[in-house]
Structure prediction request, 336 residues.
Amino acid sequence: MNLPSSGRQQMKGESVPATRGWSRARWLRTREAALGILVVVVSTIVAFAAPTFLTASNLVSVGTGMIYDLPIAAGMTFVLIVGGIDLSVGAVLGLTSVITALCLRSGVIVPLAVLAGLTAAAGMGALNGLLVARFNVAPFIVTLGTMSMARGAATVLTSGYFLSGLPPAFIAIGRGQWFGIPHPVFVVLGLLLAFDLLLRRWKPTHDAFYAGQNPAAARLSGINVGRLVFWAYVASAVAAGLSAVFMTSRLAMGYARFGDLAELRAIAAAVLGGASFRGGTGSIVGAALGVLLLAVIMNGFVLLKLSVYWQGVVSGLILVVAMAVDAYRRRRNEAR
Prediction:
């Protein structure tokens, strides 16, 4: 049963604020501006505590580290918008790294090896999407299971060892530069721009906001919610696979443990940037600022020579705070 077009427009107008309207745009700018100010404040504190923070080499190091987390955070934002969650992205990163490295060591040419790794990542995402969208299995359970599958498969394939001896042509992907800027920076910026434009401007993906806010009403209005959920998980996994290609190339080795805790950082960045565990909201720009905030904090730990074990504590604390802020924001909106 499809609602008339006027009914669909009404559902959209009432359930989710229009992302193209002035009020929605103003809300996004305000939230992103607040997060940007927080980044500046934290950066200032770190710079006073560790003057080397503002050196060119350190800032390049911070930016390089963000290259791996930005695609994953963007994919996680898409999944959260449709009302899901993806705990498998870190393990998918490790599996993609291992498969790509194994193919390269077997003599497979670079493009086909990269394609094999990304295909494996897409397959894991498709499995997640199928179980969630078609069989209505809880996203937390599904992705927890595929996380274990991917990490276990990567470990079995390598016996826990590093896979080195990768060809120079592949290493050039992560270490090569255009105009003094590493290749992955251009690719990641292009990916973020594409994600942002598709979610805000292209109707088939823009409908993800309505699907996440009220799936039942979205279905009645003619939106294929299941298809959106499926492709959100595929996109999330492929984004993690892309990060794996860059990481494997830059470090010149494949490793099953690559991507540890990447899912926690991605969730924290996405929620800090405006995404909600209830679905229906999210911002790629906000998620990118969330990644930047986490990167600055972690870099401060390194510069101040604090115990590396505290980094996990801080990451978890930030995630808890982000969840609390999301719950508070949701209750405030429901009270209006």
About this structure: The longest strand covers residues 177-178. Residues 1-22 have pLDDT under 50 and may be disordered. The chain has one domain: 35-335. The chain is about 75% helix and 0% strand.
